[in-house]
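S., here's the first fold you wanted:
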Amino acid sequence: MSATLTGIAFNLCALVIFVTMDTLGKLLVAHYPVPQVVFVRFCCHILFVALAIRLLTGSLPWRSRAPWLQLGRGLCLILASLLFVGALAYLPLADATTVGFAAPLLTVLLAAFWLREKVGWRRWAGVGIGLVGVLVALRPPFLTGGPLPHWAILLPLGNAVAYSIYQIMTRRLAALDDPRTTMLHTGLAGVVVLALVQPFVWQAPGTAGPLPAAWVWTGLLALGALSAAGHGMLVLAFTRAQASLLAPLTYTQLLWAMIASAVVFGQRPDGITLSGAAIIACGGLLVAWPSRRKGGSTG
């Protein structure tokens, strides 16, 4: 029980860190290009992760048995990050987070059709309910009776698609590569690609917005540190508690995002966002809830 409670604590801390990272990212992209912010974040992330693995294990196992799969996974993660951070430049944090939570539902769909995993009726029902919540959060005029939503609402939806593919590739790689190898490759391919566009988008810190260069650099470096810390805590959480127990806690991130959106940016979520978030959370909980099979096994 002590290990389980520790795992829950690590998981909750990771989710708070992710919201903190998104909040900081939204502040930065108000003045600096999205590719620049994502590039620095992942550069720092890779450095922090490599340093931690080296200190803890004494080696850096870079070589992969499936380099092309690692490449595709890395590109999907960078694409997901670009889309989500780009959405933060236009949308309230709570709205972008709510729509982005379509990712776990889409992962179930891809797992069923791509990995041929067996998905029971309860999970299919949860996916259906969750996708209804996503539709509500997208604010279509035929539901809200209002004007067309901002075009940027499609960006977190694209983020959800890219991230769900990233998760499926991560599952495939779990049977092929050392987990340390996969952690080291996370974001590496995307950083190489983003490095090619930096000469065209780079804006010197301190030249835009009210903050001096030192503060901007601190924020950019903090993004990488928070990313590494958050993902590291998730790894620690899943080594101490069951995935079926931790998965429902993911939806507390919606609550923290709404609080951050209101406190930091003064953007309070409206009834449509709250309704969509509640429906998505209900669907997600139904997907994550383990079903009991004969003999007491959980599936």
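And the second, which I think is the more interesting of the pair:
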Amino acid sequence: MIIIAEDLLLQASLDGEVLLDQVKTKLLATETQAMGKLAAILPRKQYKKATEQILTLKQRYYPDNRSLLPILSFKQRGQTAGTAHLQKWEIRLNPILLAENSTSFIDEVLPHEYAHLLVYALYGRVQPHGKEWQQMMEYVMNLPAKRTHQFDTARSSTKQYRRFTYQCECKTHELTAIRHNRFQQGKARYHCRQCGQILRPIVDSTESSQF
């Protein structure tokens, strides 16, 4: 499975690795279910043409990849939960909304965006939420054809990832919150690639503990 910018999910949640595994599991299950159903209901030539189209799209960017699975990216931002990049065969997810709404996000957004990709492979460009997509959602994904999500987007619209300053023998480094937390919990140590020294946090005197 090709995954892009998974570090953005790890920054958005302390449980980012668990969420990533859940997303991957759901995508695999959704792909197995959808392709199995399409193989059963479509004429053989139409199904073969669709799979060939999928491979053609993916191999523009990943020529050695023979998987039908969509490329998975966590670069989506703002109020949008996810988007389907049709000609890249890519699903782009919002890591902040995923972190804040994990179960409903995984169950709803992934099949929604994957349905867009399958419709494109079968019919080309049609109305984004037209009858083809609605049928894909209802008869292949076994889900209601909901066009929009109901997630609270207040934090995803404004949230900025906090950085923590560390230093070695030769310079300072900016670490993400997830890396900082792993260091604080004794789960990880980081080294400078130039001097090889272990990174140490710079204490910020303006910080205070909160109860």
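Why I say that: The first helix runs from residue 6 to 12. The two ends are 42 Å apart (CA to CA).

Talk tomorrow,
H.
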